[in-house]
Amino acid sequence: MKYLLARPQTQENLKLWAGNAKLVIASHFFWGAGTDMQKSKQGLLRSLLYSMFSHSPDLFSMACQRRWKATMLDEQDDSIWSVEDLLEAFKTLTSQTEFPTKFCLFIDGLDECTEDHSELIKLLNSLVQSNVKICLSSRRWKVFEDAYGEPEDRRLYLEKNNREDIHSYVQSELEQHPAWGPLVEINPRTSGIVAEITDRSQGVFLWAVLVVRYFHEWLTHGDTMFFLEQKLRNFPVDLELLFKSMLESLHPMYTSYVRRIFKLALTAPEPLPVMAYASLERGVKDESNVHPQGNKPLSYRDQLLRIGQLDRQLQHMGKGLLEVYRQHNEQDALRYRVDFLHRTVRDFFSRNEILQGTDGVSQNIFSKRVLPYQGSACLQLLEM
Fold first, then answer.
1. Chosen CATH of 250-351 out of 2.40.360, 1.10.10, 3.30.390, 3.30.1330
2. What is the value of pTM for the model shown?
């Protein structure tokens, strides 16, 4: 949806539709793991109205006359905007004729709205007018297919439109593995398994990326086509089930350590430097002794060596769900940060209790474990 919003062709086509009228584009992205406003009808209407008024502030006085008059008279109006108030303002705004205006709304993730979906559909249908277009997206849930599945020429299924891209990606990635070429020569079914990966992905690129990573591992181990096919067909198609399966395959020796890694990544206010994770391996039984004052800051070379080791650990123990990346506005070792592979991974951990445990990350980890490492890294930079 963000791609459609940012694409110049979208703007150009909408301007043709608007003609001489003013064009206003507004958007909302439901997020099930976010705040109440990010997953409710009230949040939807607030977000849309905010976008509209930001684009055309001159329309506020017309759409919200009571509140506008109170503001002009220096009167305080602290009443809460109810869904009914917001809907009334929206309809007043879109039905006014003094300033000819056409509106296009982009609303993503209907399935992530936690309120009654039938009521959400009624609300969305009530927004449609001759001068209002709406582009909606959702997972293939029956309630939304029943409501918006017809006519067929106005419906797009992601898997039907990015199939070739996923197929090309899978083919290209497998061809880079040295064991794939010989396998192609001796087994004609290799083209079939590329197509099967593509079909089973159902248009979800992230699923294909994760499966291809496993294929690289299996090819390294010398798996034949028979075993590759069996393993692929045992792979969960649902992303969240796949995440669970990946973590359950972890050796029990690493479970406690990995749980702390993911908890730290999830609770951190922003992606932390890789070195912030270096202390987790030491355990959390005696947090007061995690970073003894006598420890000397690591040299820059030693920090890079440790970062490389931690990167390997995250790839192996974290199953690639966490990644190390470079942040260009930082210097030296601080520029290497850890973040989730994709937002859906963060959402998965936010919604599930898979990280629950007594060996998890405590609330004071930032003061006792993370901050000392960031501080020592900064001191090291000053000494160089």
1. 1.10.10
2. 0.65
